[in-house]
Amino acid sequence: MRGSFLSLIFLLILFFFPSFAESKPIHVITYDGIINPVSSELFTTAISQAERADAEALIIQLDTPGGLDTSMRDIIKAMIASEVPIVVYVAPSGGRAASAGVFIIMAAHLAAMAPGTNIGAAHPVAMGGGQMDEEMKKKVENDAAAYIRSLAERRGRNAEWAEKAVRESVSITEKEAVKLKIVDFIADDLTDLIKKMDGQAVTTAKGNQRLSTAQAEVIKNPISVRLRILKAISDPNVAYVLMLLGITGLIAELYSPGAILPGVVGAISLILALYAFQTLPINYAGLLLILLAFLLFLAEIKVQSFGVLGFGGVVSLLFGSLMLINADIPSLRVSLQVIVPSVLITSLFFLFIVQAAWRSQRRRPVTGAEGLIGEIGVAQTDLTPKGMLQVHGELWSAESDEPVATGEPAEVVRVDGLQLHVKKVKR
């Protein structure tokens, strides 16, 4: 009886004074960039870590122009299956949640935006530079509209506006988003967000919960070094430069076998570029034009075309670079500020190789038997027609069509094995 009374007193203390209870931590991750397999791995890993730590909530601070549909759906699946409440916070000021970011907002248990942010423009776009016909556009649009409507209805958000974001690419500010019930509230910063989260009711895969964040410890989970590297590689500009560096390195190794370093650097760069291209909407016509450019550069080295092949390589490289990633999302394209200097440097590099090869072909040999042709020697015996000739301090058996007296100079005109054919030099 006494034990039951003490338990009741303890429960009453916890109820009226919740600060005495041990609060659960709040996990926070920050992501700025396109939605791709790297972000998908980051989000799903963070959700798993929060579940293992029995966190009160996971806050995802997001600033994204959108990204790949497959990666977005992987993230949303993990969010829906999460037993920990997921709070998506569009921040900092000037940030946005566009395209795939809108879907992620709709899937969140709670959503907030910082002042000066916007959300919207979730119309699906063709990836890879291809053009969808009208029937395919309609199918993709209807699929995306149905998906975002189901997410909005699941979280009690404005499904009508969500569908308009897909079909009409509408975009709104943070104040309009709260008014239209797209997000739950506006938060000035992370501290303000945690304060406004306190007491909010959510429904997770585990059931109904009421957040208690007032006294919660905030644990910020930084992006691992591995994911930082993969995120950097997945940047279209970096992937493009790695591809050019890789192909150039391999060609340089083929041109000068045994150099080793160009081949190693080229192979590593090309493999990293191929990894990045798996996460980007590649236009294969552009990729083929770039490969054609390098083939033309190689042909210019082997065949003297007076610059025609080289010029064709430059034009092919430029147009291929412009077409390589033809996405409607600017963040998924290769910047023109990267393309122009890259094309210029690559072209100048191959022009240097072509000139070096042409000079080496025209240069007279200086070693071996061919190096003796044109050299002047001194007859050590009378050449009538055969005798001995000294060239470069060496004695050679020589033959001349006209007599050459001992001590007179003679020029080497041909070499047959160990026999020199010379002609008399007129004084």
Overall description:
- The protein has helices spanning 2-16, 37-52, 69-81, 100-107, 134-155, 159-167, 174-179, 190-197, 225-233, 236-255, 261-277, 284-302, 308-323, 336-362; strands at residues 26-32, 57-63, 86-90, 96-98, 110-113, 118-120, 171-173, 185-186, 201-204, 207-210, 218-220, 376-379, 386-391, 394-400, 409-416, 419-424.
- It has 427 residues and is of the alpha/beta class.
- The chain folds into 3 domains: 17-226, 2-enoyl-CoA Hydratase, Chain A, domain 1, CATH 3.90.226.10; 235-362, no CATH class; 370-424, OB fold (Dihydrolipoamide Acetyltransferase, E2P) (Beta Barrel).
- The strands form 4 sheets. It has a 6-stranded parallel β-sheet with strand order 8-5-3-2-1-11, sandwiched between helices.
- Helix 2 (37-52) runs parallel beside helix 3 (69-81), helix 10 (236-255) runs antiparallel to helix 11 (261-277) and helix 13 (308-323) packs antiparallel against helix 14 (336-362).
- It is elongated and about 115 Å long.
- The model is unreliable at 16-21 (pLDDT under 50).
Task: Provide the helix percentage.
Answer: 40-55%
Listing every helix as H and every strand as E from the N terminus to the C terminus, the arrangement reads: HEHEHEEHEEHHEHEHEEEHHHHHHEEEEE
Overall radius of gyration: 36 Å
The level-1 CATH class of the largest domain: Alpha Beta
Per CATH, the superfamily of the largest domain is 2-enoyl-CoA Hydratase, Chain A, domain 1
Shape: elongated
DSSP helix count? 14
Strand tally: 16
Structural class: alpha/beta
- For this structure, the CATH topology of the largest domain is 2-enoyl-CoA Hydratase, Chain A, domain 1
Could you name the ranges where pLDDT drops below 50 across 5 or more consecutive residues?
Answer: 16-21
